[in-house]
């Protein structure tokens, strides 16, 4: 296969949903179709189920599971499919945002009865920022749910994206019999089976009267009417609009019963983009460039506290990645060779000799990598699109064991490199502030500092509303602002200026009085 063909056959995507909509179940069914697993139950949910903070081993175990299912690759009908898993728990939303920078498209799972939920809305905003092509799978049609047309309207309104159904449910609730494939204009009826894939019955034409016997005459009649209505109401599917992230093809089904999953997968393979160009600070990198480049979007700590090895997840953006070859670690300006790069095939991990754009490679790392680091064949490239988001929760972090201050500093440093939370240093009193998206992270940090670095920390409350990155073309006003707000000025990990607003009112006042200063809620602008 040529290099270009390798790129063209790759589909790298993420599945996102509000917790419980059916992401894990759908992932598993896709793996079953792909032949990557043979019975259901092989994929463990990486859900962090406890919000209580008592059972740390549980969190650790679950972190272990999430590394196993971080990337799931498989070959199917000539395509190489890479599914990137994202944590559903909202406390880990930032992890999900970062994973979304490594995908070329997204499938959103929605519960038919619950419709669009809060986490779905937030994740869609991230997709919109990057114009990521989005497909929607409306799940759990086997349960009494809402009318399909109503769900389509809700998706359009709530997710602010055009919709075009490419599959349609036959019956619903207990009468649900499968889905008609609008995209391929055929019907394939499965027998519901939760565990494996059963042989289905195929209909080329829904006007076929035999259909009445398989579903029911009433369901068949409703299907025929619905399809006529769909084709009348919605314009033909516009592939270009989908690729621009403006139009979401919508599929219906029941992941648990294997209804609608194959329809989704087949359409996905045909219309979802192969690896797209990646933006850097200097230029756009095309996947089919000869020279290798990639960036780190996720770092996973080793489960074994005796080995501080980590796994850096690298998304390959261009070129042909090869084992034991000298590459440039751009930030460190250092040549490095990777002797055991790992690829992920379903639940197996194995050392690989090569990888192509769109692939994710795991690189064992003893502390050289940070999230956002770029690797290349020599060119100084800095990939964009991995911003930090303004945290929601803040606490002062203090050393609780004066004998271990070095360990604490090192531990904090490494955990921040992994992107567990963000660290701000108050410029007025020098105190360190940890900012997170969820409360769970504070506990995870404290636990990991102790178990992996032998350091203890203690938190002290600080009341903050937001941390914003500030920037201005007016150095005088910027200077004036910093002087006036000394108590509220901090530096982030990279030495950038951050304003710590203690209330929305304070932020609003600052924005009104300092018109030449821009207040950003993400670190990349
Ligand atoms: P996730 O949190 O989005 O990963 O959701 P899961 O895949 O873990 O599913 C949440 C629950 O919904 C589980 O109990 C599943 O068995 C159930 N579920 C998933 N898909 C379906 C479906 O199509 N129909 C029904 N009735 N239940 C489903």
From TrEMBL:
State the protein's name.
Answer: Peptide chain release factor 3
What HAMAP family does its record include?
Answer: Rel_fac_3
Biological process (GO), any one: regulation of translational termination
**Residue limits of the Tr-type G domain?**
8-276
Chief subcellular location equals cytoplasm
List ligand-binding residues for GTP: 17-24, 85-89, 139-142
Q: Report the GO molecular function annotations.
A: GTP binding; GTPase activity; translation release factor activity, codon nonspecific; translation release factor activity, codon specific
What's a Pfam family in this record? Answer: GTP_EFTU
- Supply one GO CC term from the record: cytosol
- Keyword GTP-binding in annotation: yes
The answer, when asked if Nucleotide-binding is one of the entry's keywords, is yes
Q: What lineage does UniProt assign to this protein's organism?
A: Bacteria, Pseudomonadati, Bacteroidota, Bacteroidia, Marinilabiliales
The gene behind this protein is prfC
Keywords, in A-Z order: Cytoplasm, GTP-binding, Nucleotide-binding, Protein biosynthesis
Q: Which organism is it from?
A: Geofilum rubicundum JCM 15548
Which PANTHER family did the record assign?
A: PEPTIDE CHAIN RELEASE FACTOR RF3
Which NCBIfam families has this protein been placed in? prfC, PRK00741.1, small_GTP
Which InterPro entries does the record associate with it? EF-G-like_DII, EFG_III/V, G_TR_CS, P-loop_NTPase, PrfC, RF3_C, RF3_dom_3_sf, RF3_GTP-bd
Into which family does the record put it?
Answer: Belongs to the TRAFAC class translation factor GTPase superfamily. Classic translation factor GTPase family. PrfC subfamily.
Q: What is the annotated role of this protein in its UniProt record? A: Increases the formation of ribosomal termination complexes and stimulates activities of RF-1 and RF-2. It binds guanine nucleotides and has strong preference for UGA stop codons. It may interact directly with the ribosome. The stimulation of RF-1 and RF-2 is significantly reduced by GTP and GDP, but not by GMP.
Cellular localisation = Cytoplasm
């Amino acid at each position: 296969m040529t290099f270009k063909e390798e790129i063209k056959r790759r589909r790298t995507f993420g599945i996102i949903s509000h917790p419980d909509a059916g992401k894990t179940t759908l992932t598993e069914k896709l793996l079953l179709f792909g032949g990557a697993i043979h019975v259901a139950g092989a994929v463990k949910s990486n859900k962090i189920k406890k919000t209580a903070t008592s059972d740390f081993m549980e969190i650790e175990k679950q972190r272990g599971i999430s590394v196993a299912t971080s990337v799931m690759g498989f070959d199917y009908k000539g395509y190489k499919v890479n599914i990137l898993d994202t944590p559903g728990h909202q406390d880990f939303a930032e992890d999900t945002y970062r994973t979304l920078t490594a995908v070329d498209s997204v499938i959103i799972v929605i519960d038919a009865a619950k419709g669009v939920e809060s986490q779905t809305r937030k994740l869609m905003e991230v997709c919109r920022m990057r114009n990521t092509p989005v497909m929607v799978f409306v799940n759990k049609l086997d349960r009494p749910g809402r009318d399909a047309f109503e769900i389509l309207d809700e998706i359009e309104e709530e997710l602010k994206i055009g919709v075009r159904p490419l599959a349609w449910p036959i019956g619903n609730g207990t009468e649900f019999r499968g889905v008609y494939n609008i995209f391929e204009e055929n019907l394939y009826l499965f027998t519901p089976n939760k565990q494996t894939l059963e042989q289905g019955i195929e209909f080329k034409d829904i006007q076929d009267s035999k259909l009445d016997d398989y579903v029911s005459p009433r369901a068949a009649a409703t299907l025929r009417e619905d399809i006529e209505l769909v084709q009348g109401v919605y314009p033909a599917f516009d592939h270009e609009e989908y690729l621009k992230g403006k139009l979401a093809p919508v599929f219906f089904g029941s992941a648990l019963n294997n209804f609608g999953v194959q329809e989704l997968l087949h359409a996905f393979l045909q219309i979802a983009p192969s690896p797209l160009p990646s933006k850097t600070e200097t230029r756009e990198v095309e996947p089919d460039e000869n020279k290798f480049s990639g960036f780190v979007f996720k770092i996973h700590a080793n489960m074994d506290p005796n080995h501080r090895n980590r796994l850096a997840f690298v998304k390959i953006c261009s070129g042909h990645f090869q084992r034991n070859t000298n590459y440039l670690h751009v930030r460190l300006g250092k040549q490095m060779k990777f002797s055991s790069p790992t690829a992920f095939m379903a639940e197996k991990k194995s050392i690989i000799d090569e990888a192509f754009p769109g692939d994710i490679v795991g690189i064992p790392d003893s502390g050289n990598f940070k999230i956002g680091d770029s690797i290349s064949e020599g060119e100084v490239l800095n990939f964009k699109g991995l911003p930090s988001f303004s945290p929601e929760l803040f606490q002062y972090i203090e050393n609780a064991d004066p004998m271990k201050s070095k360990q604490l500093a090192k531990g904090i440093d490494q955990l921040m490199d992994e992107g567990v939370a963000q660290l701000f240093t108050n410029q007025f009193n020098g105190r360190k502030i940890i900012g997170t998206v969820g409360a769970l992270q504070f506990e995870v940090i404290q636990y990991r500092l102790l178990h992996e670095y032998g350091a203890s920390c203690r938190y002290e409350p600080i009341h903050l509303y937001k941390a914003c990155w500030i920037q201005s073309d007016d150095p005088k006003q910027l200077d004036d602002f910093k002087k006036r707000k000394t108590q509220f000025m901090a530096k982030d990990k990279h030495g950038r200026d951050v304003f710590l607003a203690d209330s929305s009112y304070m932020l609003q006042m600052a924005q009104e009085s300092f018109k030449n200063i821009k207040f950003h809620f993400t670190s990349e602008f």
